[in-house]
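2024-03-11 09:14:02 DEBUG pipeline.ingest accepted 1 chain
2024-03-11 09:14:02 DEBUG pipeline.ingest length=354
2024-03-11 09:14:03 DEBUG pipeline.predict start
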Amino acid sequence: MDFKSKIKTIEWIKDKNVSRMVDQLVVPYEYKLVDISTSDDMYDAIKTMIVRGAPAIGIAGAHGMALAALEIASKTQNSDEFLTQLRKKAEYLKSSRPTAVNLMWAVDKQFDHIKNSGKTVDEMVQMLIEHGIKLENEDIEINKKIGDYGAELVPKKGATILTHCNAGALATVGYGTALGVVRSAFAKDNTVQVFADETRPRQQGARITTFELVMDNIPVTLITDGMSGYFMEKGMIDMVVVGADRIAANGDTANKIGTYNLAIVANYHNVPFYIAAPLSTIDTSIESGKEIPIEERSHEEVTHINGKSICAEGVKVINPGFDVTPASLIKGIITEKGVLYPPYNESIKKAFAL
């Protein structure tokens, strides 16, 4: 059975030349679509997490390049000047979120697609729009392949899969990486269920993952981040599948803060811990996770919930958005080219060569 998610996170609207996306700041209270019509608005949408999740951010960056091209083309028809200004816009868009490498990958893909084309400015604009739509459509197919490969790893009928943060339809164009595995597994066995970590401090698991799964009628149980060891010790978790924001050449993986803790607990209890991510999330230019830049986010994310303070005024706060899970704790990396296993330096190279 081909599982069809009801969610389309981001989509280029050709007759309006806008990027339409789900506003994830208001989920689950509201399912609202917003149109992004300028490159500055796209920068803000990525920065403020109106759109979030590494693959979705990548497509937002691709759309942002098309919006930038439209803006520049309205001011100049000189190809060299167009490319010079577009390169500056590319660096600007990439600076909106430093950790998720899919953003850099997609923006660079867009620029590389037209830089040596020899086309007119208007032709290059259309090339960027069409190529952005192509990347958008490919994302869904890639995620379905990830889901199908991952579903083969589910250890038994009626398995319980633990996830962290949101690596679902709302983190991609519309199917999901970690939740793509869940969706594909559920299509084969509708007794599969999910435990979702709440994922402090922005509660993406509580707000977004549960929203998606309830919408798709997939059984989900919400737990706090500190409960995973309790349920693993009781044998209630059969596997862990999470997404990724950047994977180094050796398999070290940056994902939402708290992932590293979860991997340690899973390994202690012999619960298989998997990463689900497209090859575009793998950054072969860096050797290990020590080179991955970690975004430091607003302290208010920790001190406030729904605009209300939850701690003493003046308390010190450190708020890294991500942590790095060492490759030694990862049983496998599920990609659109299959499941990669240690040693990751070798399996990653082979995957890119396929």
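2024-03-11 09:14:41 DEBUG pipeline.report Residues 1 and 188 are 7 Å apart (CA to CA).
2024-03-11 09:14:41 DEBUG pipeline.predict end
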